[in-house]
Design a protein that fits this description.
Helix 3 (90-93) links the parallel strand 4 (74-80) and strand 5. The protein has helices at 8-21, 41-51, 90-93, 140-149, and strands at residues 2-5, 30-34, 66-71, 74-80, 102-106, 120-127, 130-137. It contains four helices and seven strands; from the N terminus they run βαβαββαβββα. Bound molecules: adenosine-5'-diphosphate and magnesium ion.
Length: 150
Protein backbone atom coordinates (compact mmCIF):
# COMPACT_ATOMS: atom_id res chain seq x y z
CA UNK A 1 0.00 0.00 0.00
CA UNK A 2 1.37 3.43 -0.81
CA UNK A 3 0.03 6.96 -0.75
CA UNK A 4 1.20 10.45 -1.67
CA UNK A 5 1.61 13.01 1.13
CA UNK A 6 1.75 16.42 -0.61
CA UNK A 7 2.95 18.42 2.41
CA UNK A 8 3.83 18.25 6.10
CA UNK A 9 0.17 18.65 7.06
CA UNK A 10 -0.60 15.44 5.14
CA UNK A 11 2.10 13.59 7.11
CA UNK A 12 0.53 14.84 10.36
CA UNK A 13 -2.95 13.84 9.13
CA UNK A 14 -1.64 10.36 8.35
CA UNK A 15 -0.27 10.11 11.92
CA UNK A 16 -3.78 10.89 13.20
CA UNK A 17 -5.24 8.13 10.99
CA UNK A 18 -2.60 5.70 12.20
CA UNK A 19 -3.40 6.65 15.79
CA UNK A 20 -7.11 5.90 15.32
CA UNK A 21 -6.35 2.56 13.68
CA UNK A 22 -3.99 1.34 16.43
CA UNK A 23 -5.25 -1.13 19.03
CA UNK A 24 -5.86 0.04 22.62
CA UNK A 25 -3.09 -2.12 24.07
CA UNK A 26 0.14 -1.25 22.31
CA UNK A 27 2.59 -3.00 24.64
CA UNK A 28 4.97 -5.04 22.51
CA UNK A 29 4.02 -3.41 19.22
CA UNK A 30 6.89 -2.27 16.99
CA UNK A 31 6.68 0.08 14.01
CA UNK A 32 9.75 0.61 11.83
CA UNK A 33 10.17 3.97 10.05
CA UNK A 34 12.48 3.93 7.06
CA UNK A 35 13.57 6.70 4.75
CA UNK A 36 16.41 9.09 3.96
CA UNK A 37 17.30 12.09 6.12
CA UNK A 38 14.50 14.63 5.92
CA UNK A 39 11.99 12.14 4.52
CA UNK A 40 9.63 12.84 7.42
CA UNK A 41 10.12 9.96 9.90
CA UNK A 42 10.44 12.27 12.93
CA UNK A 43 7.56 14.46 11.72
CA UNK A 44 5.32 11.39 11.67
CA UNK A 45 6.54 10.10 15.05
CA UNK A 46 6.17 13.53 16.69
CA UNK A 47 2.61 13.86 15.40
CA UNK A 48 1.76 10.33 16.57
CA UNK A 49 3.18 10.94 20.07
CA UNK A 50 1.14 14.17 20.28
CA UNK A 51 -1.98 12.37 19.00
CA UNK A 52 -1.44 9.90 21.83
CA UNK A 53 -1.73 12.68 24.39
CA UNK A 54 1.79 14.04 24.90
CA UNK A 55 1.84 17.85 25.11
CA UNK A 56 5.52 18.65 25.68
CA UNK A 57 8.54 18.58 23.42
CA UNK A 58 9.51 15.53 21.39
CA UNK A 59 13.31 15.69 21.36
CA UNK A 60 15.30 13.74 18.81
CA UNK A 61 16.74 10.53 20.30
CA UNK A 62 19.68 10.60 17.87
CA UNK A 63 22.29 10.86 20.66
CA UNK A 64 20.36 9.10 23.43
CA UNK A 65 19.11 6.29 21.08
CA UNK A 66 15.86 6.01 23.04
CA UNK A 67 13.44 8.60 24.37
CA UNK A 68 10.80 7.08 26.68
CA UNK A 69 7.27 8.44 27.19
CA UNK A 70 4.53 7.49 29.64
CA UNK A 71 1.25 8.21 27.88
CA UNK A 72 -2.41 7.60 28.78
CA UNK A 73 -2.32 4.39 26.68
CA UNK A 74 0.92 3.12 28.17
CA UNK A 75 4.65 3.35 27.58
CA UNK A 76 6.11 4.46 24.28
CA UNK A 77 9.74 4.32 23.21
CA UNK A 78 10.96 6.55 20.39
CA UNK A 79 14.15 4.95 19.12
CA UNK A 80 16.60 6.37 16.59
CA UNK A 81 19.37 4.04 15.44
CA UNK A 82 21.03 6.55 13.06
CA UNK A 83 24.20 6.68 15.16
CA UNK A 84 24.67 2.99 15.85
CA UNK A 85 27.45 1.38 13.89
CA UNK A 86 26.80 -2.27 14.63
CA UNK A 87 23.70 -4.25 15.44
CA UNK A 88 25.46 -5.42 18.64
CA UNK A 89 24.89 -1.94 20.10
CA UNK A 90 21.24 -2.88 20.51
CA UNK A 91 22.36 -4.74 23.64
CA UNK A 92 23.51 -1.43 25.15
CA UNK A 93 20.20 0.08 24.22
CA UNK A 94 18.47 -2.69 26.20
CA UNK A 95 16.17 -3.51 23.29
CA UNK A 96 14.72 -6.58 25.04
CA UNK A 97 13.69 -4.51 28.07
CA UNK A 98 11.64 -2.19 25.88
CA UNK A 99 9.01 -4.83 25.07
CA UNK A 100 6.63 -3.46 27.73
CA UNK A 101 5.84 -0.50 25.51
CA UNK A 102 5.11 0.69 21.98
CA UNK A 103 8.37 0.94 20.01
CA UNK A 104 8.74 3.41 17.16
CA UNK A 105 12.09 2.92 15.43
CA UNK A 106 13.82 5.33 13.03
CA UNK A 107 16.71 3.91 10.94
CA UNK A 108 15.80 0.25 11.66
CA UNK A 109 18.02 -0.89 8.77
CA UNK A 110 20.99 -0.33 11.14
CA UNK A 111 19.80 -3.45 12.99
CA UNK A 112 18.22 -5.86 10.49
CA UNK A 113 17.38 -8.40 13.23
CA UNK A 114 14.62 -6.01 14.35
CA UNK A 115 12.58 -7.08 11.32
CA UNK A 116 11.62 -10.31 13.05
CA UNK A 117 10.25 -8.39 16.08
CA UNK A 118 8.34 -5.79 14.10
CA UNK A 119 4.67 -5.42 13.20
CA UNK A 120 4.61 -2.67 10.62
CA UNK A 121 7.06 -1.03 8.26
CA UNK A 122 6.46 2.54 7.10
CA UNK A 123 8.76 3.75 4.34
CA UNK A 124 8.89 7.44 3.45
CA UNK A 125 10.56 8.62 0.28
CA UNK A 126 10.99 11.93 -1.49
CA UNK A 127 8.47 12.63 -4.21
CA UNK A 128 8.98 16.37 -4.59
CA UNK A 129 7.41 18.54 -3.47
CA UNK A 130 5.90 15.94 -1.15
CA UNK A 131 6.60 12.45 0.07
CA UNK A 132 5.50 8.95 -0.79
CA UNK A 133 4.50 6.69 2.09
CA UNK A 134 4.49 2.91 1.75
CA UNK A 135 3.18 0.57 4.43
CA UNK A 136 3.81 -3.13 4.85
CA UNK A 137 2.63 -5.49 7.56
CA UNK A 138 5.42 -7.58 9.08
CA UNK A 139 3.27 -9.69 11.45
CA UNK A 140 -0.28 -11.02 11.31
CA UNK A 141 -1.65 -8.13 13.38
CA UNK A 142 0.54 -5.71 11.43
CA UNK A 143 -0.94 -6.93 8.13
CA UNK A 144 -4.45 -6.33 9.48
CA UNK A 145 -3.44 -2.81 10.49
CA UNK A 146 -1.82 -2.14 7.10
CA UNK A 147 -5.04 -3.29 5.39
CA UNK A 148 -7.08 -0.94 7.55
CA UNK A 149 -4.84 1.98 6.60
CA UNK A 150 -5.02 1.36 2.86
N1 LIG B 1 4.64 15.09 3.16
C1 LIG B 1 5.60 16.02 3.19
N2 LIG B 1 5.88 16.76 2.10
C2 LIG B 1 6.87 17.68 2.13
N3 LIG B 1 7.62 17.95 3.22
C3 LIG B 1 7.39 17.24 4.33
C4 LIG B 1 6.37 16.25 4.39
N4 LIG B 1 6.37 15.69 5.62
C5 LIG B 1 7.34 16.31 6.31
N5 LIG B 1 7.96 17.25 5.56
C6 LIG B 1 9.11 18.11 5.90
O1 LIG B 1 10.29 17.35 5.66
C7 LIG B 1 11.17 17.45 6.76
C8 LIG B 1 11.22 16.11 7.45
O2 LIG B 1 12.11 16.16 8.52
P1 LIG B 1 12.14 15.00 9.59
O3 LIG B 1 10.75 14.63 9.97
O4 LIG B 1 13.09 15.41 10.67
O5 LIG B 1 12.77 13.80 8.72
P2 LIG B 1 13.56 12.48 9.15
O6 LIG B 1 13.22 12.17 10.59
O7 LIG B 1 13.06 11.44 8.19
O8 LIG B 1 15.01 12.76 8.94
C9 LIG B 1 10.61 18.55 7.66
O9 LIG B 1 11.20 19.77 7.26
C10 LIG B 1 9.12 18.53 7.34
O10 LIG B 1 8.52 19.79 7.49
MG1 LIG C 1 14.49 11.74 12.26
Amino acid sequence: MSLFLPDEAATIAFAARLHSALPADLAGWTILLEGDLGAGKSTLVRALIRAMGHTGAVPSPTSTLVEPYVLPRGKLYHIDLYRITSADELRFLGWNELDDGFRLVEWPDRAPQLLSDADLQIRLSYQEPGRNLAIAGLSGRGELLAAELS
